[in-house]
Amino acid sequence: MANQLTLKNDFTVSGKSLHTGLHITAQFCPAEPNTGYRFLRTDLEDKPIVEALAENVLHTERGTVLSKNDVSISTVEHALAALYAAEIDNCLIKIEARKSVSAGLRTP
């Protein structure tokens, strides 16, 4: 089996979500071998994980949406492409995507 790569250190990006306009923070973290790419929703009570697997693709209109057990992460294709291009095999991506009460939306 070929050696697998992960990140040496965490890094974080944040900004406005393309389709929802919500403020999103994504922390990219090193991960154990054979875990692949996984998204951890830190903003939800159970902190569910959605793996970046073909079986978890909900739809691909206007962006790729991954979904598992009624939890979804939208527009993941750019982050996944960047990790793949950097030859990173395993990464845990922690997503904080709380809805803004001031924008008239409820916090999950």
Helix fraction bin: under 10%
User: How many alpha or pi helices?
Assistant: 1
Assign the structural class, choosing from mainly alpha, mainly beta, alpha/beta, alpha+beta, or little secondary structure.
mainly beta
| E-strand count | 8
- Name the overall outline: globular
Distance between the termini: 42 Å
Q: What portion of the residues fall into strands of 2 or more residues?
A: 35-45%
Strand order of the largest sheet: 1-2-8-3-4
Q: Average pLDDT value?
A: 88
What is the alpha-carbon Rg in Å?
14 Å
> Uncertain regions: pLDDT < 50 for 5+ in a row?
100-108
Task: Profile the largest sheet.
Answer: 5 strands, mixed
What would a concise description of this structure say?
The strands form two sheets. Strands 1-2-8-3-4 form a five-stranded mixed sheet, with no helix packed on it. Mean pLDDT is 88; it is low at 100-108.
How would you describe this structure to a colleague?
The structure is a single chain. The chain is built from one helix and eight strands, in the order βββββββαβ. The protein has one helix spanning 77-85; strands at residues 11-16, 23-30, 37-41, 49-51, 57-59, 65-68, 71-74, 91-96. The strands form two sheets. A five-stranded mixed beta sheet has the order 1-2-8-3-4, with no helix packed on it. Strands 5-6-7 form a three-stranded antiparallel beta sheet, with no helix packed on it. With 108 residues, it is mainly beta. The chain is globular. A hairpin with a 6-residue loop joins β1 (11-16) and β2 (23-30).
